[in-house]
Every structure is written in C-alpha cells, then in structure tokens.
C-alpha cells in the first residue's frame, strides 16, 4: 500500500513537471503577474497616452537642440573651411538662403522659457492673464478690461493692446468669449500674428565677406555684450571674426571689448582714446578684407536718441563704413534694453528715423516680467526682432523666432497653466 502511494506521488510529480515544461515562460507566469488583455488594449489605444508621450518627445528633441554649440574640433574646423571654400558665390536666392546664419537656428523653446521665467511667474505677464481667465465660466466686460490692463502694464502699448483686444472681441462669438481656453488661444494667435508679420528676414545673413554688423543703441543697452555673444557664436561656427572698438568715448569701452576678444580668441581693432569712431570701423573693415575675415562686429558708444550731435556722429559712422566697403554696414542692429519698457519704444523710434536700422536685439528679457513688451515694440516699430538676450553669459543669445517665442511666453492654456 505504502509502495503504491509512493509510486503514485512520483507519477503525479513527473506528470506535473512534464506539463509545466511544455509551456512558454510567459504562460508560466502567475495570472497576477500578467498584464490583462484589457489593460494592454487600453494603454495602446487611448488618447491620453499619445498625449502624454508627445510632449516628452518634443521636450527631448528640444533639449537636444538646447545644448550650446561646441567649438569645432580641429578637423571639424578644417572641414568647415573646405566646405566654405567649395561654396559657389551666392547669386540666387537659394544660395543666399544657404549662407544664412543656419547653425544657430535651433528651436530652443525650453531654454527660451527658462529665460522668460519672470514673465511666466504668477506676478508676470503670463501669470497675470492666466489668473484672470482660469476657472471663469464667463469672460465678462470686467475681466476683459482687466486683461487689457495687464497688456497695458506689460508694455504692450496702448495701440497694440487696442488692436489685440478689438480683434478678439470681433472674431470670437459670445459663446466663445465665455471659454477661457478659446480666449487664451486667441490671445496667443494675435501675438503670433503680430510678431510673425514683422519676422521676415529675421536671420542675420552672412553672405558678404566680410559681413559688417554695426550695433547701436542707448547707454547700457547691451551692445558690447551682444557683440561678445555674437562673436562667440560665429567663432564656434568656425567663422573668422574681427571686432571693431567703435566706442572711443567711454574710457573702459575698448578694454571691455578686449576682454571679450581675449576670451573668445578674436582680434580687436581699436584706435586711441577719443579717436574718430568711423575711422576705427573703417580700419577694421579694411583689415577684415585683407585677412579674408567673415564678420566684422562694430561697437559704438551708447547715446541718448535726443542728442542730435551724437546721432549725427552715428550717421557719419554709417557713411564712413560704406566708404570702406560697398554696401556696408550690412546690418545695423538697434540694441534695446527690454526692461526700459515703453521708454525704449520711444528711443527706438528715434534711432530708426536717423539710421538705416535693419533689425532689433532685445536684451535683458530675463530681467523683466513684462515679456509682452516684445509684441508691443515689434508692432510699434514694424521692425524685425533678430535676436534676444536672456542673460549675461556668452550663450544667452537666441535667434528670434515668432512661433518659438510665443510658445515660450504663452505656451499652454489657462486651465492647464503652470506658472
Ligand atoms: N541680464 C542680462 N544682462 C545683460 C544682457 N545683455 C547685457 N547685459 C548686461 O547689461 C550691462 C550693460 O551691458 P553692455 O554690453 O556694457 O551695454 P552697452 O550698450 O555696451 O553699454 P555702453 O557701452 O555703456 O553704451 C552689463 O552688465 C551686461 O552684462 C542680457 O541679455 N541679460
Ligand atoms: Mg558698450
């Protein structure tokens, strides 16, 4: 009997072993370890999953583009040189486009948003409008007036604020006006349309050899710093750069430019204290031609737009530069301190009346909560914003792109707002 029982137990054990061996590892899992067919189905097919991975992918691709450009290695530099040597002369529009400042055209929305942090805080441009609209069942006249006030106090300007709010009232139905998300989207669309309209030819073209870029603006706007940032960028792209110390007025100005020059490893052409700024820039352009340099970045002394003699001096600088090279300066960039708000708009208008300004550089956007200023000044001057400064470091210079900027400043609606 005992023997029979032992034999039976062995037979059952062997049978169970053989049965289990015939199954796949997956089949051997305990039911509780296996994802249910329902769960698999639901994660594969529902929209929330698609929606939650898309921003991650976007963020990753943006983060990849966020990395600062590294200086080319020796071999990369040589490659760049040979590519440049092989380039045919720019004759057609497409050839010109190929010589645009392409490598810097990265879409760094993450970096932009970080730089615009003050504007996105609860007490900033984004935060204040979002707080007004969020959770509202109805956007009544009172809220509309408060939105207008935020736009006005964020230096969007009276006229532009009026245009934006009128358009929103005219285009949205009564029902749409009671939906905060729709109102928010309409605001974003207006900002995009205003900035987009002035955004043609925003890239700085480097098709001339050398391309001469003159920076002008009021005192302390960030001209010299922007030159340092641009020189860093161009050098990292393998281009040869010369700096012209056209600020012969301020005692420490040449030294400030030399510090940048030494740091980046580019030559600074300068004259004696009090020298004629035009002649310094003339010399720099001629030297760049001799050396076959790609870019001349010319600094000028800061000046108040109201000082007619100083504005006349700048006009002379432009004329003298043209004598050094036909068509130069190829860009006259007006550097504007964004923290000066509407004052800066008035100053900028005066500069534009006196000089062939080709675009703006808006600096210190990291230091203001009034990011709406960018929309205001672009609309008031009808002048492209070419670059924006978001800090003091060499890498804190961004190409301006209307889409990216609006995304960074007003991205995500009021209900899903994060400030
Ligand atoms: N936070 C911040 N500071 C900036 C930015 N651009 C320039 N600055 C700072 O602004 C100050 C003035 O910059 P400068 O480049 O000397 O200005 P400038 O227009 O050459 O001044 P002048 O030569 O006196 O007319 C410096 O302390 C810079 O570091 C920016 O985008 N963000
Ligand atoms: Mg300066």
- In percent terms, what proportion of residues is strand? 5-15%
Weakly predicted, low-confidence segments: 12-104
Separation, N- and C-terminal Cα atoms: 80 Å
Largest sheet: 8 strands, mixed
Q: Helix count?
A: 20
Count of individual beta strands? 8
Helix fraction bin: 55-70%
| Overall average pLDDT | 78
Query: What best-fitting shape do the alpha-carbon axes yield?
Result: elongated
Give helix and strand order, one letter per element, not per position: HHHHHHHHHHHHHEHEHEHEHEHEHEEH
What is this structure, in a nutshell?
It is built from 20 helices and eight strands. It has helices at residues 2-21, 25-28, 37-45, 47-66, 74-86, 93-98, 109-115, 117-120, 125-133, 141-153, 158-171, 174-177, 180-197, 223-236, 253-264, 277-291, 308-324, 341-354, 373-381, 402-410; strands at 211-216, 241-244, 267-269, 295-298, 331-337, 359-363, 385-389, 397-399. The radius of gyration is 30 Å and the shape is elongated.
Structure description:
- The protein has helices at 2-21, 25-28, 37-45, 47-66, 74-86, 93-98, 109-115, 117-120, 125-133, 141-153, 158-171, 174-177, 180-197, 223-236, 253-264, 277-291, 308-324, 341-354, 373-381, 402-410, and strands spanning 211-216, 241-244, 267-269, 295-298, 331-337, 359-363, 385-389, 397-399.
- The protein is α/β, with parallel strands linked by helices and 419 residues long.
- Residues 217, 219-225, 247, 250, 253, 302, 335, 363-364, 366-367, 389-392, 396 line the site of guanosine-5'-triphosphate.
